[in-house]
Design a protein that fits this description.
Residues 8-18 have a biased composition (Basic residues). This protein is mainly alpha-helical. The chain has helices spanning 5-15, 28-67, 77-88, 92-101, 110-128, 138-146; strands at residues 130-133, 159-162, 168-171. The longest helix has 40 residues, at 28-67. The chain starts with a helix and ends in an 8-residue tail after the last strand.
Length: 179
């Protein structure tokens, strides 16, 4: 079982009489410290990558929650589709502005490319089954309103996949493929 960097530092400083000021470059203790530091760096990178990957879904659910503020009750499947299409088209104004600012004959800007890529990816997902919170039941909507806004809190919500054709299928958390 890997030992954290703090535990390694504490153990070595106790062994050295309370101070950790000088170690030989290739000593066992120095190597232990380097390995523990590398483990921590690796774990931090993995956690950051997972957080970035999950941020897309957290932002999506947060957008749906904010779009429903001021209303109450369950939604029909048609309302869910309209809400999903509103989510996919949320950056249309920014895209139109970026296109208008571009001089004729010039390639698209980075902002324009980024927005277009996101929109195309969301359109493809919507065609196959867009992953959203199930808001067809009032108790599911209440759970969404009580959601704390973090990834770990999403496991209490119920999810569905809705397609452009109007087909609705139950889904799971976390989203995997077309579950």
């Amino acid at each position: 079982m890997p030992v954290s960097l703090n535990k390694v530092q504490k153990h070595i400083s106790k062994k050295k009489g309370g101070k950790l000021t000088s170690l030989h470059q290739n000593s066992r203790d120095a190597n232990r410290l380097r390995r523990a530091g590398a483990r921590e760096d690796k774990l931090i990178k993995i956690l950051d990558a997972a957080t970035r990957a999950n941020k897309v879904y957290v932002d999506r659910i947060d957008w749906f929650r904010s779009a429903l503020e001021g209303s109450s009750g369950a939604l029909s499947e048609a309302e869910l589709q309209a809400l999903t299409e509103g989510y996919i088209g949320r950056n249309d104004d920014e895209l139109a502005q970026a296109k208008a600012e571009r001089r004729p004959g010039r390639p698209p800007s980075k902002v324009e490319e980024r927005i277009t890529e996101h929109k195309n990816a969301e359109e493809r997902e919507y065609k196959a089954g867009f992953w959203i919170v199930d808001l067809r039941q009032p108790e599911d909507r209440d759970k969404l309103e009580r959601w704390s806004g973090d990834w770990a809190g999403l496991n209490t919500l119920k999810f569905i996949r809705i397609t452009r054709d109007g087909f609705v299928k139950d889904s799971s958390f976390p989203p995997k493929g077309l579950s």
